[in-house]
Amino acid sequence: MNLTTLKRIELPATTDLHCHLRQDAMMHLVTPYIEKGGCDIALVMPNLQPPITQISQALAYYQALSQIAPGVKFLMTLYLHPTVTPDVIAAAAQSKIIYGVKLYPAGVTTNSQDGVLDIEQYYPVFEAMQAHDLVLNLHGENPDVEVLKAEAAFVPTLHRLHAAFPRLRIVLEHVSTAKGVEAVRQCGPTVAATITAHHLFMTTENAEQDVHSFCKPIAKTLTDRIALLRAAVDGSGKFFFGSDSAPHPVQSKEQTNTAAGCFTQGWVTVLVVDALRQAVEMGWISNHDITEETLEGFLSTYGREFYKIADLSDSSKRRIRLEKSDEIIPKSVVSSDGKIEVVPYRRGERVMSLSWIDKP
Q1: Which of 74-88, 183-197, 302-316 has the lowest mean pLDDT?
Q2: What count of other Cβ atoms lies within 10 Å of the Cβ of residue 339?
Q3: This model's pTM is above 0.85
C-alpha cells in the first residue's frame, strides 16, 4: 500500500480500545467525537471522580454514554481498588458490559490517587479475572522513578504478572518505549499492547514545546517512536489501537501544572494513517510493511479478536472512507453553552476527511 500517494481508502470502522470520555458536561462535549473519528467500539477508562469501582456505576456510565452516542458500542472497565473483590469480578463477568479492570499505580496519572500501592495484594482478584476471562488493563509506569524511565521500570512487573497468571489477558496500555514493545513481544499470546495516535507522532521534544502535546506516558525518544511505528504494522496481532484520547479544559492545559493528556478522539483514524505516511517518507518503515491487512488489523481486527468481540452486533459490518482533502483540525472545540473549551492535538493541521459508508 503506497500511503505517500494515497488519495482514498475504505476501511472497517476503527476500534478504540482505550479512551477517556470524562463525565458531566465534558462527557457530553467529547463523546460524539468517537464516531467523527471513525470508531464504533470504544473501551472506556474508569478514572472518573469518584472512580468506577462498582458494577452499578459502570452500568450508569454505560447508559449515559449510550444515550449520547447510540451508534457506538461501549465496553466498560472497573478501576482496581480494594472494593473490587473476586466476587465483584465474577459478577462483572456476567454483566455483559464490563470487559476489563484498569490498574493504575497510585499517583501515576490523572485521577489515579486511589490507585494501587501493592500489586500482590490483588493476586486473588487477578486469579478471579483469569478464571472469568476479564482483561487486566495496565497503566505500565512506575511512579517512583524519573518519568522518562517509568515504563521501562514497570517491565519486570509485567513479566511477573504474566508468569503468575499465564492465562490472564493483559494489555500494556499506551506503550511508549522500545523496551515496552520488546517486553510485550517476549510474552505469550495473552499479552498485548495498545498504541496511541499521538505517540506515533511525538518525541519528548514535541511535548516540551507544546502543552497540548503533553501526555502521560510522556513521549520518549526518536528510537522509541520508530519502534512504535514498526510495531503498529508488524502484523503480529499483539499491538492494536487505543487512542488514550484524554480531554482537559483549555485552562487545565495552559496552567503552570499542566494536565496530562492529548485530545485526539475526532481524528484518531486519519492521524494514524498520516503518522504511518510520514514514517514511510522518513524511511523508518516502507510501503511494503503497510498492507491492507496490517492496517485494518492495527486499527480494528487485532483488538476485536483479543477482546473476543469480533462479531459484536452489527459493528463488524460498518465501514469508513478516508479521502485526501483540505480538512483542518480545528483550533478548539467548545460546548454549546461556551463554558468548556478543549484544544485538539495537532490543531491547525491538514488531514484526510472521514465519512461513514454504512450506518446501521
Answers
A1: 302-316
A2: 10
A3: yes
Q: Which residue has the cell 490483588?
A: 122
Tell how strand 73-79 and strand 191-195 pair up.
unpaired
E strands of 80-200, at which residues? 98-103, 135-138, 170-172, 191-195
Q: How far apart are CA 156 and CA 144, in angstroms?
A: 14
For residue 297, which phi and psi values (nearest 5 degrees)?
-60, -50
Please name every residue paired with 170 in a beta bridge, in sequence order, or none if there are none: 136, 191
Q: Which of 85, 79, 34 is nearest to 58 (CA)?
A: 79
DSSP three-state, residue 353 = strand
Sign of CA dihedral 261, 264, 269, 271: negative
The position carrying cell 491547525 is 348
Considering only CA atoms, which of 169, 181, 173, 197 is closest in space to residue 306? 169
**Binning pLDDT at 50, 70 and 90, where does residue 316 land?**
low
Residue 350, beta-bridge partner list = 328
Per-residue pLDDT, 314: 54
The band of 143, judged by pLDDT with boundaries at 50, 70 and 90, is confident
Residues 6 or more apart from 227 whose CB is under 8 A from it? 177, 178, 181, 182
Query: Which residues neighbour 205 within 8 Å (Cβ) at sequence distance 6 or greater?
Result: none
